[in-house]
Amino acid sequence: MRTRVHFIAPYESMIPIIQECIPRFPQLTIQTDVGDLANGVELATQAEKNGAEIIISRGGTAQLIKKAVTIPVIDVQLSGYDMIRSLTLASQFNGQTAIVGFSNITSGAQSIIDLMDLPLKVYTIHSSEDVARLLLELKASGYRQIVGDVITVNTAKTYGLEGLLIQSGQESILRAMEDAQLVYRYLSKNHAISIILNDLVTREHPNLLILNERNEVVFENLTDFEKNPLTDNYIYLTNTSLDFHQSQIQNVFMVDDYQLTVNAYETTLDNKNYKVYMLEKGQPYAFVQFGITTFTDASMEPIVAESPAMQAVLQNIQALYENHEPIYLRGEADSGKSFLVKHIHQMYSGGGLLLQMDLSQVPPGHLHKIPLAKVRNVEINHMETRMEDPELLAFIQSCLQNQIGVFILGEQIMNPQWSLDLELNTIMMPNLADRPEDLAPLMQHFLTDYYHKYGTTAVRIKEDALQLIQDQITHMNVNQLKQLIKQAALNEQDYVITTATLSRLLDQQPSSSPMKLDGTLKEIEKEVIQFVLQEENNNQSKAAERLGINRATLWRKLKD
């Protein structure tokens, strides 16, 4: 029987490296999860209940897990190579950078910084409680990037700083798995029977809770739930029903955006009473299925706003937002409008939900059903599909009366009558070509993100490669730039993205075919229209606007 190992990675991009290492240990059954600190502890305790025999994790998460489980916990140690790669990437950042961590990180970091003469400063902490205070002091001193472990990086992002995680490489993970193999040789306890019984129970009941007489959970297996959805009130109501009926009962509750069904009964083992709960997760509320989603992430992702154009946009939006005035954010598709709304929500909402709505999918008569109690901001897309709908105007006015921020996103000039009815304020989202100062930090931000997410090799962009992109920027939006950097990061084998790599990728982009200006005036006019349409990705509204005609005229000229 193979040993069951549960690897709890504190960050997502460690998972692909773990998967590469797993085939080297055929005698181990290795499962993976992503969770840091308290979340990692929850995953570890659940893994132990499900039959895991060894836990592997890293840093502070591993230390907390050791206190919460009764099985061996192996800590992934950072290697010198891990430190060199992370610190090299950190040194490419255009701003003050600090290394923050416990002595096991900072002592090695200081040696490497001294050896490589890197422009980085090191700060040692002695407990996780020191992190927030120290980062606030560093931010006040002008630092803009923090390098460290997961808790340090997450705290940095919460305070609007760039965070760079020191990641573990393959050799560190292989060493931890070898330690797991060694530890198991010394384990004499045989879990075969308990594993078989546990497997039988969880197959029959994929969402099962068993509570003792004090309503403490003694067994938990929740396949369809991230965490236990039962509140104290739900448990009280279920237990009251059990006491009254003295048989198996069923209760139905509404939790967040879904229906929760609880089937429960009582049983006695060794003269102790237990309550067995079998849970079933129902379908989401109807509105979730119709283009309305919620955003609840409280972490703060820094926005690139080095350019005067973006700084002016942020200042104007903040002033309008603080006065509870509705905002029409106008700009080209994929110019970052929705990201900007999310940034404002994270900065100023103080918690609560961001409701993101696609009006082209919301059925009529549905807006007034949306619960707004926990909503702090609303982002409205495809407004043009509902301009004549009085329900939409009533919904927006209801949001404003409840001091809910209203952001309407679009590409066209807003109907003047609508602007008057709502006292709507138009803010123009600048194109990349209007933000030259943002280009380099934006690309470095994308590159760092892909390093975290995919474990890519490249950590910076050569100056001549940067110039190549600057020459092409008038034809790109933010999303296209992001995709270009992603492809470059995935295809670059070196630590630096070169002009050769970017040139190959840019050559793959479809180029506009030249116009043929021969033929009659009518034929040339049609050729011009087709050329503009191609440049505007067949968006007839944008093409008509560029040509100075309306959509009906454009359609007629194409048909003639």
UniProtKB/TrEMBL annotation:
SUPFAM superfamilies: Homeodomain-like (SSF46689), P-loop containing nucleoside triphosphate hydrolases (SSF52540), PrpR receptor domain-like (SSF159800). Pfam families: AAA_lid_14 (PF25601), HTH_8 (PF02954), PrpR_N (PF06506). This is Transcriptional regulator with PAS, ATPase and Fis domain. Residues 303-490 form the Sigma-54 factor interaction domain. Keywords: ATP-binding, Nucleotide-binding, Transcription, Transcription regulation. The keyword ATP-binding applies.
